[in-house]
Task: structure prediction
Amino acid sequence: MPENNKQRILYTFLVASLMIYFMFTYNKILLGVPVNAEMIKFPINQYIIILPFALFFSLLFVNKSSKNIALKLVTPGKTHPAKVKAAFTLGHVIHMAPLMSLVSSIIWSDLTLKEFIAVWPIKILENAPFAFIVNFFIVTPVVGLIFKKLQPYIK
Result:
């Protein structure tokens, strides 16, 4: 886990980058884009636009608020590590799914305000379970491995 601000920024950047990729790919599938090599290419144009929002939200308040939620649910050291990890992931998804669905919908949809108000809760419900699963089983383990290799160089 990150021990200082430089490490927190790097860790958050790595998590946000992978989550953006997986969520863009997942939402393409929801829209009916055929699964092929073209579909899984990294969406650099969207990534450049959405990454600052993800970093801003995470670093400014989501990470701390997620930690508060998790610590109300579990006690690290007394609770099984998988449950602790799940509680932290849940806390993060509770915040980021609505925020990033909101930002993405505002940027890329051409809905009227009335349509948006009707569609936004549905997007949250579509995205939150997938975000939890991919964060818990793929993103966090992969970023953890990468971060362990890079951590000694970032003091």
